[in-house]
Design a protein that fits this description.
Helix content is about 20%, strand content about 30%. The chain is α+β, with helices and mostly antiparallel strands. It folds into two domains: about 60 residues; about 100 residues, no CATH class.
Length: about 190
């Protein structure tokens, strides 16, 4: 079984590709786990306009690390909450928001406790519900988490901690643990039931 952050190698169109495990897409009976891989070098093209790919565990080779050859890296600079908040706000520039019906997840003409934020290209960024009964805060895996993680060289757990502080301070949602989501279809969105 692979873990998030594991360095892996695989073959794509006869070429060796190196990358890191971002998450598990699903579990298949014969192939085992299907993993979401972020390649070290871009694989995007006209025919494949994506930054990540999914590969079965049987086609992945985990990198072997020789601990005797690993040098101690310089201590990375700790990201401040202020720097993180600014980067998050930069992601929201040019965005639009709309109210969603908390029960159905459909767009509402009335003001509700549930808000969806879309970027300038109408791509989903965040979905949050400030209802006291079932508050939630979801953010895009690809358009928020991966960008912030890469920008500051953070692990997902570090992003989540900084995001939790941001959500508590700016969205006034104390005690809510923000979560990343790959895609929010209306039938996958949380409801306040």
């Amino acid at each position: 079984m692979l873990c998030q952050g594991d360095k892996v190698y695989c073959m794509i169109n006869g070429k060796s590709v190196a990358g890191h495990v971002c998450g598990k897409a699903s579990e298949q009976p014969i192939m085992g786990g299907l993993y979401i891989i972020e390649p070290d070098e871009s694989i995007s093209s006209k025919d494949y306009p994506y930054t990540h790919f999914v590969m079965p565990e049987v086609a992945l080779t985990r990198a072997q690390v020789d601990c005797s050859s690993v040098s101690v890296k310089e201590k990375k600079k700790k990201v401040t909450q202020k720097e993180f908040n600014k980067a998050f706000n930069d992601l929201l520039k040019g965005s639009t928001q709309r109210y969603l019906d908390p029960e159905t997840g459909k767009v509402s003409k009335k003001k509700t406790s549930r808000i969806e934020v879309l970027d300038s290209n109408d791509k989903w960024l965040i979905d949050y519900d400030t209802a006291k009964k079932n508050p939630s805060f979801l953010y895009s895996h690809f358009r928020v988490l991966l960008i912030l993680r890469k920008q500051f060289s953070l692990q997902d757990i570090e992003v989540q901690g900084l995001m939790k502080s941001l959500v508590e301070a700016h969205f006034k949602m104390k005690g809510v643990t923000p979560r990343d989501a790959v895609y929010l279809s209306p039938w996958l969105r949380p409801t306040s039931k």
